[in-house]
Design goal:
By secondary structure, the protein is mostly helical. It is built from five helices and no strands.
Length: 108
């Protein structure tokens, strides 16, 4: 059975390609965010954005606004976690593909 980390990794690759956005030149940023999304998916059943503070994570998951891809990303391609960067962002790489081994490497 695929793990949440694997699922979020696949989601990130597909979503970057679909939205024509790119991962950060610092791949540890990408890895940490994907790992955070996977952790929330495991704990709360949805990939709540890992880069924000919440008083009540369960409530936030129900509200869905910050479930990835969040509303700002869907509406305006704004990802404050720097997971999905538009081409003109100075931190954008040319990469839209990341695999689970690379993430595990970065996290360790
Ligand atoms: Fe996902 Fe939005 Fe968080 Fe970016 S800012 S990781 S798109 S939830």
């Amino acid at each position: 059975m695929p793990t949440s980390l694997d699922a979020m990794c696949r989601f990130s690759t597909t979503y970057a390609q679909r939205t024509n956005t790119f991962f950060c030149i610092d791949s540890s940023v990408t890895a940490v965010v994907i790992e955070g999304l996977a952790r929330h998916k495991d704990t709360y059943g949805a990939p709540l954005c890992p880069c924000r503070h919440y008083d009540d994570k369960k409530l936030e998951v129900e509200n869905a606004y910050w479930n990835c891809p969040c509303v700002p990303m869907r509406e305006r391609k704004e990802c404050h976690c720097m997971l999905f960067l538009t081409e003109d962002n100075e931190f954008a790489s040319q990469n839209q593909d990341i695999n689970i081994e690379a993430i595990v490497d970065q996290i360790n």
